[in-house]
Amino acid sequence: MKTILLLDDDKEFRTLVVPALEGRGHRVLQARTAAEANAAIAAGGVDLAVVDGLLPDTDGMSWISRLRTVGDRLPVVFVSAFWRDLGSFNRLTKDLKVNLVLHKPVAPALFAEEVEALLFGRKPIPPQRPEVVQAEEAIRALSIEYARNMPAKLKEIVCAVGALRSASSPEPRRAEATTLAHRLRGTAGSYGFREVGEAAGRLEDALWSATGPQSSAESWTLVDSALESLRLAMEQAASTREPPALGMALSSGRILAVSPNEPFLELVRALGRQQLYQTVCVSTPAEARASAAGQPPDAAFLDLPASEASQLARDLRTVPGCEEMTFAFVSEEGGTPDRVAAAHAGASLFLAQPIDFDDLSTAARQLVTAAQVHRPRVLVVDDDEAVASRA
Fold first, then answer.
1. For strand 48-52 and strand 76-80, is the pairing parallel, antiparallel, or unpaired?
2. Residue 388 — left, alpha, or beta (φ > 0 → left; ψ -120 to 50 → alpha)?
3. Dist CA 108 CA 13 (whole Å)
4. Domain 251-374 adopts which CATH fold?
5. 161-175, pLDDT tens digit by residue?
6. 3-142 adopts what CATH topology?
7. Where are the alpha helices (DSSP H) in the chain?
């Protein structure tokens, strides 16, 4: 058994992940503020800390920085809905020696696996263990309860936004409204309600814009639009009889990697485990075409000779569902002919080997984001469930 310090002021996020960690036999100390976390560290016996990015009395980076300043080498997992840029990632991993960086929302079971693998330096406990199954059942019950509370959460946010709009001095009201949106942004997806989390994120961003120095009447129009999207998403979540799956549905996107080079494929798999991408790794173009036909990916890394990569890119774009798919060509040589071939094939990125984890992470984020931005979202309205499911 290990002792894990969980530093996050979002009670619902703590409530979600604690059963997943305790289900694997660990003791979890919960801290809402940096001061509470400092007291836990001073008492000793902490084996690992999970730290959120935004805290009531400081930010997660600053807390970790102070920990490292006094020479404490405690393993740290940084979890946040923010801090997604490469500069922050490099500071966390290189300067502050953070062992693992994850972005909310997280899938509780996958999150617990990553923490356990970090603690023991080995593969995590198999999910069929009774205590793990029991924890997953508890998380499922929490997801159902979270959905039931959606109407109250929606009412709270609507009231907070209304109070902010009419306030003569926006500062205290802004803090209340943005905090509510931020918590929902980071937590809803972890409970399986990803669309609610995404809508809350858009509302949070719109609120900051509407109350900033460049605010305008149009800014509040964006707030109204974001709030309406959130309302629709939350009402849909509240009406759900069965909670969504808390596993692959929470992934950051689907990535296909094609390479005869097993170390490169393993690097892609590691990226998927850490940043919750669904990854499919194959060694031949034929396998890639078959995989894409079964489940279209958002993006692909093609580590093949330029001619093969170009042909495969053209083939994949003819597969239904892959029309907006993005590509990165990977080459050991990186010469001009390969770069020209990549450009002619419509590749978004060209990567020269050797590729480190940071570069691969940045490339994956760019590719998946570009693909998802251009993919249309369609609302299907039909009382025939078979029609809706086929759509």
1. parallel
2. alpha
3. 10
4. Rossmann fold (3.40.50)
5. 999 988 877 788 888
6. Rossmann fold (3.40.50)
7. 11-22, 34-43, 60-69, 86-90, 108-120, 130-148, 150-166, 170-187, 194-210, 217-238, 262-275, 285-294, 306-316, 336-344, 357-374, 385-390
pTM of the shown model: 0.54
User: Helix/strand/coil (H, E, C) string of 60-80?
Assistant: HHHHHHHHHHCCCCCCEEEEE
Maximum Cα interatomic distance, the chain, rounded to a whole number of Å: 64
Residue type, 266: E
**Helices 150-166 and 217-238, axial angle in degrees (round to 10):** 170
Domain 149-238, what architecture? Up-down Bundle (1.20)
pLDDT of residue 126 exceeding 50, the answer is: no
Q: CA 121 to CA 1: how far, in whole Å?
A: 14
C-beta atoms surrounding 126 within 10 Å = 8
Whether the predicted pLDDT of 366 surpasses 60: yes
Token pair belonging to 150: 């959606």
Mean of pLDDT values over 290-310: 92
- CB atoms closer than 10 angstroms to residue 24: 22
Examine the pLDDT at 135 and tell me if it is beyond 60: no
- pLDDT tens per residue across span 243-292: 555 443 344 678 999 999 998 998 898 888 766 688 999 999 999 999 99
Neighbours of 137 (CB within 10 A): 12
Residue 386 has pLDDT above 50, yes or no: no
Tell me if 3-142 shares its fold with 251-374.
yes
Closest of 262, 266, 322 to residue 290, by C-alpha: 322
Residues 6 or more apart in contact with residue 17 via CB below 8 angstroms: 6, 50, 106, 108, 111, 112, 190
Reduced to 3 states (helix: H, G, I; strand: E, B; else coil), residue 336 is: helix
Q: Is the dihedral of CA 225, 230, 236, 238 positive or negative?
A: negative
So where are the chain's domains? 3-142, 149-238, 251-374
* Torsion, Cα of 81, 232, 137, 389 (10° steps): -110
CA–CA gap between residue 115 and residue 345 (Å, rounded): 40
